[in-house]
Amino acid sequence: MRWRNPNSSASNDEENPYWMSFSDMMASLLVIFMLAAAALMLQLATKSQKVDEQVDEVARAEKVRKQIIDEIVEELKQKQIVVEKSDNDTVLHIPESSLRFASGSSDIPETLQNNVREIGNVLYEALNRDIDSQNQAKARFTLLDTVFIEGHTDNNFYKNPILRGNWGLSAMRAISVWQFWAEDPNQASNGLNAMKNHIGEALFSVSGYGDTRPRNEAKNCEKYDDICHSKNRRIDIRITVKKPSIKELEEIKGK
After folding, report:
1. How many CB atoms lie within 10 A of CB 239?
2. Rounded to 5 degrees, what angle do the CA atoms 42, 45, 51 make?
3. Domain locations in the chain?
4. Which of 16-25, 131-140, 155-164 has the lowest mean pLDDT?
5. Are 149 and 207 in contact (CB under 8 A)?
6. pLDDT tens, 104-144?
7. What confidence tens digit (pLDDT) does each residue in 169-212 have?
8. Considering the chain, what percentage of its residues have pLDDT values greater than 90?
9. Highest CATH level, class, for 50-247
């Protein structure tokens, strides 16, 4: 009969301690991998949430802008003043029936000053309303970036070395309208001057485009057709909304 040494009954793990070490290492690596995957998923979810928040904020601002423009058009219509809106709901066109400039002039005709006054007052009221019932302490204009008062001219050359031709004339038309609104202390439009955008800068700005942006119906006016040319001697009001800055987007990307 073969004799067996009882001390030789050690387990396989005791005979091969390296196998236990390898198993422990693999288990640890699996845990680390799972934790890294969970952290990555959380990071991606956070980025996605941040992007969704930015998209929602822009959509909200654009919705408010449309409300502002629609209300201005309707309220002025009730006052028998015509103001048109662009197809994309970003620009208000003041047609020659509501405000027209004489050729080569930036003066607001006395007969149309009441129209301009009412447009400014209605603009102020629409911008200053609460965003919605949940944001009663926050005015609509805080969702905007800039409101541009844009001046335009016809393509008849304006000879004035000081104003630099039609470019200067168009800018002066925009300035005339802005000053008319902002410098009358007895009108609601005077409050436009105090409005600040979402980063605390002045909300309103003026710009001039010369004859570079004619109305579609007045792109090919005959030289002496003043009725056609008058359609381009106009003021537009362009409203832009706040959007995420490059810095904000880079911060989301880097997180």
Report:
1. 25
2. 145
3. 50-247
4. 16-25
5. yes
6. 899 999 999 999 999 999 999 999 999 876 655 689 999 99
7. 999 999 999 999 998 888 888 899 999 998 899 999 999 999 99
8. 49
9. alpha beta
**The pairing of beta strand 235-241 with beta strand 144-151:** antiparallel
CB 222 within 8 A of CB 228: yes
| CA-angle at 179, arms to 89 and 150, nearest 5° | 35
Angle at 62 between CA 189 and CA 192, to 5 degrees: 15
Rounded CA-CA distance 98/81 in Å is 6
Q: Indicate the residue type of 233.
A: R
Could you report the per-residue pLDDT of 225-254, keeping only the tens digit for each? 888 888 999 999 999 998 766 565 555 566
Strands, DSSP E only, in the chain?
A: 84-85, 91-94, 144-151, 204-208, 235-241
AA letter at 70: D
156 phi-psi bin (left φ>0, alpha ψ -120 to 50, beta other): beta
Q: Please, which residues have CB within 8 angstroms of residue 168's CB and are 6 or more apart in sequence? A: 158, 160, 162, 208
Q: How many residues does the chain have?
A: 255
At residue 157, φ and ψ (nearest 5 deg) are -65, 130
Q: Please give the full DSSP string across 132-170, using - where no structure is assigned.
A: STT-TTSBGGGGEEEEEEEE---SS----TTTTHHHHHH
